[in-house]
Hints:
Elements: H1 14-29, H2 33-37, E1 50-56, H3 62-67, H4 76-82, E2 84-86, E3 89-90, H5 98-107, H6 111-114, E4 120-123, E5 128-131, E6 140-141, H7 160-167, E7 174-178, H8 181-188, E8 194-198, E9 205-208, H9 217-224, H10 227-232, E10 235-236, E11 268-269, H11 270-277, H12 287-303, E12 313-319, H13 326-329, H14 334-358, E13 364-368, H15 377-384, E14 389-391, H16 393-408, E15 414-418, E16 421-424, H17 426-431, H18 436-447, E17 453-458, H19 459-464, H20 473-478, E18 487-491, E19 495-497, E20 511-512, E21 514-518, E22 524-526, E23 530-531, H21 535-542
Parallel strand pairs: 1-12, 1-13, 2-22, 3-23, 7-8, 7-12, 14-19
Antiparallel strand pairs: 2-21, 3-20, 4-5, 6-9, 8-9, 10-11, 13-21, 15-16, 16-18, 17-18
Helix pairs in contact: 5-8, 12-14
Amino acid sequence: xxxxxxxxTFGPNNNLKMTKFxxxxxxxxxxxxxxxxxxxxxxxxxVPPLVVIINVEQMRVDYIQRYWDKFQSDGFKRLYSExxxxxxxxxxxxxxxxxxxxxxxxxxxxxxxxxxxNDSWYDRLKEKEIRCVGDDFYLTVGSDSHEGECSAxxxxxxxxxxxxxxxxxxxxxxFSVAMNDVSxxxxxxxxxxAAYWFDTQSGNMISSSxxxxxxxxxxxxxxxxxxxxxxxxxxxxxxxPVTSYTxxxxxxxxxxxxxxxxxxxxxxxxxxxxxxxxSYKFLKTTPFGNTIIKDFAVELIDAEKLGQDNIPDLLCVxxxxxxxxxxxxxxxxxxxxxxxxxxxxxxxxxxNYIDKKTGKGNSLVLLTSTNSGTYPINYLKEEFHMPVGxxxxxxxxxxxxxxxxxxxxxxxxxxxxxxxxxxLNHDLIEKKGLLLTDVQRKVxxxxxxxxxxxxxxxxxxxxxxxxxxxxxxxxxxxxxxxRSGDILYSxxxxxxxxxxxxxxxxxxxxxxxxxxxxNKIKKGKIIQPDNALDIVPTILEILNIPVPDSCxxxxxxxxxx
Length: 561
């Protein structure tokens, strides 16, 4: 029998998963083979036994200072008082979404390389829009819904967990937990032991057959407790007397849209929200969703015996921060403050449990976010008279279609208009005998005329030139030749898109929190600018794992002893 101990093993469905995994990342790692071949997979006893990355989605850096006096001592305060606080960390992306942010944060490269340019994009070969994690080749594990038909196949780069898996000969355990499938999958990567997320249809924590062949018994036991039903029968009241939330606007602030445009004051009936939502999706916008994630993470650490040997393990935990309702309440709402005061308790509980399992200060803990929250336009305009406004991409596209019909004749010139991207009909352009670059430039020039648009650029501009060192670097770093649109545009500062037929999910704040805590971390505050791409190489340095050439960031030496 041949010796296969030097290859990662993936469980019962070995051949399929090994083939999928290696084809996905082999091209990225091949340049590093000489380096990796010279290293053994022996992990130093000095490295932390467990790395826990806490990702709080849509977390603004100013929340900590704003709510500081109301936080307890062993949650956010413990991280910020005893850890290395990078106060000027940026995650500069053209389209700032959980998808693009998570993929970038956990791979250490930009969308131009890892390929996740948006939540979805237009696939010219399939002639349809495809979702970044959607994959009907795989089945839901843990429920009868379709919410587990997902994979990491479209992620073109290895994550921090993938690198740990390869270096340890698959002995490192890698898991992720999140409310959203995108956060769970892109933080886990390709080779993770499992990625778990919340199923809004069943209320269960589920996964995909991409990761699991057999659903663990301990997860079944957790799901049998029916936490989603439990929290859906409760009311959401403020943790403290509502009059004490002086850091926030009045609870009945007139510009707050609230749930379904009609409920914007405490207390909130979870039964009413469940009835209106028709699913458990609303839990993502309440503190109860964070409680489910924390409780599941604690169960996972115990059941999977994370951090119990000298091979470092990885756990990525993603908490939501009002999630889709951020725009309905805003960063200055009582709802947001109460969410963070309760999240503070969940993080304290998680940190204390990690100490219990691995020893106090032995593990490495990171606090960060894949994106940040933005103030609503109406709030900035009415309260502060800021020069902000709204742009209607739908109106822009309608006018663009008319313009192209006049210029080139009748036809379906636009295949897809996505977030700040426009996909042209290449077949029609070729059929008409037109040059694609000429049409792209005409369209970009047209889009540049709209109020609120900062700049629109044709794809040819990135294919022909290098914009990395210019003011266009953010768009350039996010441009992927095969997946991005023909036109990429950005908005003026303070301007936001508004849609008639879909919810606006937009963010223009690239400033994210980053705190390092625990093993090998030097307490202090770093005010010099740094990049979110630096997270992956710095973790690898702490783990004594060589940094692959695929990583674009630098090691943050100032956070290390």
